[in-house]
Amino acid sequence: MKHWYLLYCKRAEQQRAEQNLKRQGVDCYYPIVTVEKLRRGKCQHVEEPLFPNYIFAGFDPDLVQYTSVRSTRGVVDFVRQGAYPIKVDLALIQQLMTIEDCDEQRDALYQGFKPGQSVMIEKGQFAGTEAIFKEKDGEKRCILLINMLSKQTELHIDNADISASR
Fold it and tell me: Domain NusG-like N-terminal: where (predicted)?
């Protein structure tokens, strides 16, 4: 009977591990999401693994040995609880497949603010101040416009420190 397990892979070698595991008859899955990244001053859409360095592997332990999976090129080891690999519920795999790269999920994860949108600064020295979202400044920061001394001033702030204005 086929079971799903979680494998820890070497850094940036999920694709290599997947290729080598598939040659052994092991089903593999790792969720991919599209994220916006700022590269050379331009926003680009890049595909990245949702869980870097991890891959789900489905196989029948009677047909494929644990040691051959564990010693596959690109794989470090099973994620374990004590001495035994942890079995992953098939429902979790199916749920990840259905929500993979869903626009609503991506917006919730990366706070998809639009230029000109009114936001509230939640943390830091400007906490409680309303501002206008100007643009993204990398993966984790953004540029806001705030009114200081009757003049609009740019403020670079972490995305985690702002929320949609009420």
Answer: 1-100
* Residue whose pair of structure tokens reads 């939640």 in the numeric block: 122
Q: Which residues pair with 130 in a beta bridge?
A: 120
State whether 98 and 127 are in the same domain: no
Q: How far apart are CA 75 and CA 118, in angstroms?
A: 46
> Tokens for 156?
């670079």
Q: What is the pLDDT of residues 66-102, one digit of tens each?
A: 999 999 999 999 999 999 999 999 989 888 888 775 5
* Domain total of the chain: 2
CATH code assigned at 157: 2.30.30.30
- Asked if 144 and 161 touch (Cβ cutoff 8 Å), the reply is no
Supply the pTM of this predicted model: 0.63
Question: Any idea what the CATH number is for the domain that residue 102 is in?
Answer: 3.30.70.940
Q: Evaluate the CA torsion angle 58, 64, 68, 73 in order and state its sign.
A: negative
Domain extent at residue 77: 3-110
Task: Look at the block and give the residue holding tokens 């020295």.
Answer: 125
